[in-house]
Amino acid sequence: MADAPPRLSHRRVLHIALPIVLSNATVPILGAVDTGVVGQLGQAAPIGAVGIGAIIITGIYWIFGFLRMGTTGLTSQARGGANGAEVDALLTRVLMIGLSAGATLIVMQWPLFHAAFLVAPASDEVEGLARDYIGIRVWSAPAMIALYGVNGWLIALERTRAVLAIQVWMNGLNIVLDLWFVTGLGWGVEGVAVATFLAEWSGLALGLWLCRDAFGGTAWKDWPRVFDRSRLKRMAQVNSDILIRSLLLQAVFISFLFVGARFGDVTLAANQILLQFLNVTAYALDGFAFAAEALVGYALGAGARSALRRAALMTTFWGLICVTALAAGFALFGGGIIDLMTTAPAVREAARAYLIYMVFAPLLGLAAWMFDGIFIGATRTADMRNMMALSFLIYVAAALVLVPALGNHGLWLAFLISFAARGVTLALRYPALETAAEV
Questions:
Q1: What is the pTM assigned to this prediction?
Q2: Do both 138 and 286 map to the same domain?
Q3: Which helix (H) or strand (E) holds 149?
């Protein structure tokens, strides 16, 4: 058995979590600047092109989010088991996977983007500009997908300040280049894409520099270990489970949007505004879920069952404080936030009518978010996949019953039921997770 883990304290949890919360807070800023810069061109088409292009390319990148999560779980366990050679070899594996996946996207870009525009058609002018945009951005796909793995590796080592540094650097450089290329040089939509391309490759370069200690040894290029069949098989299984789970989760969100669209433009707009409250919740809880991934994985790798339970409880404690504050904030200030986000009286009224669901969403979603982090850290990904499938079926059943009877209220209830179902089903599998840790 490995040495006992370092003492788990509230300070250690916050040391991991807070940089992630701050990192997530920078994400909406970049989107706003991208939109604002092209908005200075005085035309609608460039704004639409950047919007739809960004949705398509980030949607494709999102598929590879499993690389971040799987890497955190596997690396934290190797670290907990004092297997430094495997920690370094994992970094090489994820870099190879990320760079190879990105290169594949570059090769397959035409059919992928053609299919994307069939699903999300736009005017000829917007589509033409959007194709120019993603045609440039796709060349940084290897950097972005590899960076998922780098971030997962850093989180496992509890070096979340490095993750924050990468995000701040990328977004800051992107903003500066946006202003220079678009407003200074007049490059338009292509300027936004080039700015992002350069920022993403520079982000990977910074990430590799921050991982330089791993490259100082020899384990990262221990090719028999890097290409060990059993380890590669385990990695593939973990990542495929997470991918299936994530696709099912995305299906819940997409179906929510599509069904909500049937209730008219005003209701659709109100739902979209309220989903921003949910995004804020996700950004905040990610920090504590990521802390759970790193700490639970470490404890499991060290065979320390009591430390695993303590990690789960302490990270969830801070998650509870977070969601309680969010729920109270949404209850007290939600109406004012809605008014800031839209000036349309009908949309304001509709959003306020459904605001109560956003008050309960953080509280009902806490278990789902935290158990996701706990199960990722333990690499109990088959349980995540299976419980997500069960929760998806519960959501579909709830929607089939509640939507015809209650309309958009029924849709929101079904949505929240899916959160509760994820939390409850994973809670039922938690004892088996603890049993897997050595006493």
A1: 0.91
A2: no
A3: helix 141-156
Mean pLDDT of 424-436: 93
Indicate whether 218 and 133 sit together in one domain. Answer: yes
User: Which of 227, 257, 288 lies at the terminal end of a domain, its last residue?
Assistant: 227
Range of the domain at 329: 228-439
Report the residue count for the chain. Answer: 439
Q: In this structure, are 216 and 255 located in the same domain?
A: no
User: 244 with 332, same domain?
Assistant: yes
What average pLDDT score do residues 14-27 get? 89
Q: Which residues, in sequence order, are CB contacts of 73 under 8 Å at separation 6+?
A: 156, 238, 293, 297, 376, 377, 378, 379, 381
Quote the pLDDT of residue 183. Answer: 84
Same structural domain, 233 and 166: no
Residue 3 pLDDT: 43
Do 295 and 311 contact (CB within 8 A), yes or no?
yes
CB 4 within 8 A of CB 307: yes
CA distances from 314 to 19, 78, 297, 345, 401 (A): 17, 22, 14, 43, 38
φ/ψ bin of 228: left (φ > 0), alpha (ψ from -120 to 50), beta (otherwise): beta
